């Protein structure tokens, strides 16, 4: 190690130095004892910070893959859908709502939430991808992609839900709930969520590319007996 580097290492406690002055001869790096002690004491914090930065880098480099963080680091368990269920239950208690796949009327006290795009693909439980179905339909659809004929019904269902929720909840609750719609669907403002045509355009820009990507990754189309 050069004299200057050696003095700097001792005096200023630089993080590390190489074990040789020649690039081709370097076989290791040597951490300053003070830093080594710090890393040992705060290993969990440093490890998690490094992992988070790495995951952020991977997501930026793979923008077409949704939920990359959850795919690289699989959650130990699925999150509760209580908040999302309460959202839709409030809506179902206000209006008549029919399953977008089977056309059966949904019972506010006995329904399931379907991930329109499979959870194992998107790896999240955002409201913009959830729609009420009967438990039987949800079980049948499972981890499959939705049939094409359901897309327009899905958009209409989302619009109906948003409009009903907007009419029955305080402004601050509405603001908090729709933030994810605005961010993920790249909608300009809240009023656009209540405009069916603008909401349709947002979904039409977001969903088909994701379905194509999911198909390329091996996800199968749901072979259902329910017709359009």
From TrEMBL:
Pfam families cross-referenced by the UniProt entry:
HNH_4
Q: Which InterPro entries match?
A: HNH_nuc
Database matches in Gene3D superfamilies: 1.10.30.50
Note the superkingdom of the native organism. Answer: Bacteria
Locate the HNH nuclease domain: which residues? 99-146
Tell me what this protein is called: HNH nuclease domain-containing protein
- Organism for this UniProt entry: Pegethrix bostrychoides GSE-TBD4-15B
